[in-house]
Amino acid sequence: MKKTVRDIDVTGKRVLVRCDFNVPMQDGKITDDRRITSALPTIEYLVDKGAKVILMSHMGRPKGEPKPEFSLKPVADRLSQLLGREVIFAPSDTVVDDKVKETAAALEPGQVMMLENVRYRAEETKNEEPFTGQLAQLGEIFVNDAFGTAHRAHCSTAGLAKYMPSVSGFLIEKEVKFLGDALENPERPFLAIMGGAKVGDKIPVIENLLKKVDSLMIAGGMSYTFFRAMGYEIGTSILDEESIDLAKDIMDKAKASGVELLLPVDTVCAAEFDNDSEKGVYDRDSIPADMMGMDIGPKTIELYRGAIAKAKTIVWNGPAGVFEMPNFAEGTKAIAAALADSGAVTIVGGGDSAAAAEQFGYADKMTHISTGGGASLEFLEGKELPGILCLEDK
Ligand code: AMP
């Protein structure tokens, strides 16, 4: 167990807090502020305790150079509205400079400041000096609350821990609790649903989950690689050629370890990768040569609904079809709905499945939606995340 902000005296201290404010932006406006609202509990706690709060984050990929389109200023403004208090923005092309140091040193208890995008500095993603040391000069305690970047060892996510007492914020605490409990202490039956485009990307996660789950359900683009491994023709469906053997291996391992492996039995196919393309439903052993699988079919939806209803813990990562196109979104929608109705502990991995749960209006019904796509996958793989590993143990 890692220490959290509750386990350390922060009153009157300058506390450097790494958040994940990597919000989507369009024309200089924030289009989704969930990452900012997710950080509020930790920031509000620190303010209430009279800490001097110094916020850090990255946004986008400025690639080690100051680029105004990646400035965190709009985030500081939005956070200020949400907190109902001033957030002092510290603009600097080098993130830390003399003026920024003065501003940090002059903070009063309960005041909040925000540094410029840490990825303006080339050292950040390499976890190199002198940037880590410069950041360290600003504060006395390091709080990591950026789950979305916890799988990266960067200056602001892990490097700072060498310099000062380091603990987690409430968001990381919550992610570790839900993802950790699901993996280590699940109420059974435990079902994992894996979807998305490529099998290759998810093999390590599937291998780790096979050791933990009672059932594994495959959906989405990766199904076709499994169909190929089973000897079926898949027309022009997405195929991860290099992973055919790995798919066979997964089928063998599931059998050997007594894990129920559920694969789609039918599929909605289209002539083109286009929402308005001609479409039809085909059993998995009769996909036409000139069509591609775009979604799970109605028989599969029924089968999967039944399996979901029986589970007590469900981890879902990856859509069941090309859900961005309304004509191929039924399967993903049905899975999200079945999870929402299941009464099970439901954990949705970040990224596309989180977006789908949100888009179809089921986000509130899930037990936990992870804020980190890559980070939640690495966690489910069983890897230790450097941004968490570096924090003090209780
Ligand atoms: P991933 O990042 O691997 O979780 O993949 C998510 C993407 O997989 C989404 O953009 C989906 O549109 C895509 N996807 C899901 N099913 C299919 C499919 N049958 N064919 C092509 N792409 C798919």
Highlighted features:
single chain, about 400 residues, six-stranded parallel β-sheet, 17 strands, binds adenosine monophosphate
Rg, alpha carbons: 23 Å
Which small-molecule species are bound to the chains here?
adenosine monophosphate
- Arithmetic mean pLDDT: 96
Structural class by secondary-structure content: alpha/beta
Which helices and strands occur, and which strands form pairs?
Blueprint: E1 14-18, E2 25-26, E3 29-30, H1 34-48, E4 52-56, H2 73-83, E5 87-90, H3 98-105, E6 112-115, H4 131-136, E7 141-144, E8 166-168, H5 170-184, E9 190-194, H6 199-210, E10 215-218, H7 223-229, H8 244-256, E11 260-262, E12 266-270, E13 279-283, E14 292-296, H9 298-310, E15 313-317, H10 330-341, E16 345-348, H11 352-359, E17 368-369, H12 373-381, H13 386-389
The chain binds adenosine monophosphate (AMP).
The site of adenosine monophosphate has 16 residues, from strand 14.
Question: In words, what does this structure look like?
Answer:
The chain has helices spanning about 35-50, 75-85, 100-105, 130-135, 170-185, 200-210, 225-230, 245-255, 300-310, 330-340, 350-360, 375-380, 385-390; strands at about 15-20, 25, 30, 50-55, 85-90, 110-115, 140-145, 165-170, 190-195, 215-220, 260, 265-270, 280-285, 290-295, 315, 345-350, 370. It has about 400 residues and is of the alpha/beta class. The strands form 4 sheets. The protein has a 6-stranded parallel sheet, with helices on both faces. Strands 11-10-9-15-16-17 form a 6-stranded parallel sheet, sandwiched between helices. α3 (about 100-105) links the parallel β5 (about 85-90) and β6. α9 packs parallel to α10 (about 330-340). It binds adenosine monophosphate (AMP). The site of adenosine monophosphate (AMP) has 16 residues, from β14. Adenosine monophosphate binds near residues 197, 198, 293, 318 and 322.
